[in-house]
Amino acid sequence: KHPFIALALLIAVVAAVCAAGWLWLHNARQAAPETLVTAVPLTTYLGFQSEPTFSPDGSEIALVWQRENETNSNIYVKVVGSDPPLRLTSNPAVEDSPAWSPDGRWIAFYRDLPGDKHAVVLTSPVPGPERVLTEVLLSSNGVNGPLLSWSPDSQWVAAIGVDGPGEPESLFLLSVANGEKRRLTSP
Q: Is the peptide bond before 52 cis (omega within 30 degrees of 0)?
């Protein structure tokens, strides 16, 4: 009879240890402090800010800002959680639709030109020289949403535009290396 009592006692001890372990793990998971999420305003500047785009690592944003009492918008870069933003462009034309390249080297944007034309421009996230990739016409259809996007390898910019007067709006791929323009869609 003693072997059965010892076996029953062993089973009871193992069950008690398992139950205690389960209770400890269950309570430890519930008692873990919750991470508080705090909303941080990205901008609170006078004027109109729009079209923010995060840098690949999420530490900065590029944005369009039309300062109070100014007639055009420019492209700025801001480190999240700090001020002031850094002005990247100072052209008197309206600039919009910034898009940060996946490798973090470039910010592409549109610059208004006379006659419904727009330049697709590349600039560094720190003030420096700009490079015009191409010019496109934009229809007045009021397209909403991002107008520029990047390929994952940062070698191509996808842009919306019109090839010429009377042509349908299409998507184009623009080579960062040489400015080559390829029509991607033909509605």
A: no
Q: In the structure encoding, which two tokens stand for residue 110, read together?
A: 């549109």
Would the pTM of this model clear 0.90, i.e. be above it?
Answer: no
- Tally of CA atoms within 13 A in the half-sphere of 56 that contains its CB: 13
Tell me the HSE value of 149 on the side-chain side, using a 13 A CA sphere: 9
DSSP reduced 3-state for 51: strand
E strand or H helix that includes residue 110: strand 107-112
What tens digit of pLDDT does each residue of 139-158 get?
Answer: 655 555 568 999 999 999 99
**Residue in this structure with the two tokens 């480190």, named with its chain if needed:** 79
Angstrom distance (rounded) from CA 117 to CA 110: 10
Beta-ladder partners of 77:
62, 86
Exposed/middle/buried for residue 113 (C-beta within 10 Å: 0-12, 13-18, 19+): middle
State the amino acid at position 39 in one-letter form: A
Amino acid at 25: L
**Pair of tokens at residue 172:** 């184009």
Q: Which two tokens stand for residue 100?
A: 């940060």
